[in-house]
Amino acid sequence: ILQFIVRSAELSRNDIILEIGAGTGSLTRLIAEKAGHVFAVEMDRKLFEILGETLKDCNNVTSLNKDILKSKHHIHPEIVECVSNYVNTATTTEGDLCIKVISNLPYYISTPVIIDLLQEALPIKLMILTLQLDITNRMVAHPGTKDYGQLSIMTKLFSDVKVLKKLPPDVFWPAPLVDSAIVKMTVNQNKYSDRIRNYQSFQDVIKAIYISRRKTLLNSLLSLCLKGGIEKDAQGLREDLQPILRKVGINPGSRGEELDLEELIELSNEISDYVCSQKDSV
Asked: What's domain 2-187's architecture?
């Protein structure tokens, strides 16, 4: 499996690797043999000490005893700074440097880490991730299905995902209770940037829709506008929002989980324009 991961990452000496959860360093050593530099992140102190022993003869590895997340919505800034500083000061004679992420992500941090990495300032080009299968199912889910949600949307917004290999529990020790999968994410952080007029508004619309999946789209947007400080009562907002929804071809009684990415972008643009016009008129 380790060799498969290394091959899938298509490593070269121009690659800067952020490895999250380096453990005792078995995979790290294989990566270091082919990559230009590896930033190996391991938060467990005992594992970090073993990692240091494993990598003591590797001169192209920087080991970091830190949690990848500073908070739920932010990659640890010291880790970002370390990678950024290296990229900004390193020299190469053959092409541009390329940042890639390799990780076996624990279930409980998978979603925030993936979303935060996709939104991070680091110009990541590729991620090879080992994840629980239900996480990968959510990443590639289609609108209207039970797995479709914020992770599906953000993944499609910033990347193309391919499931490379499904893994049964017995390939790990200790064996988990669920199946896993290795996925390849080809990242393009500007994939839809020219289509979204206000990224914060896009995020707000997504959050409003998925904080209560069973609400109708009209009610989700109503809650968003009321919290946004628009000085209108609920009935007035309903009367404003219904034609906005119809303008973009969306039934006000539908649920947000039925919308594909293109519809969500168009809707968020219209909501952004509406909110700005209401605040300007005050």
From this structure: 3-Layer(aba) Sandwich (3.40)
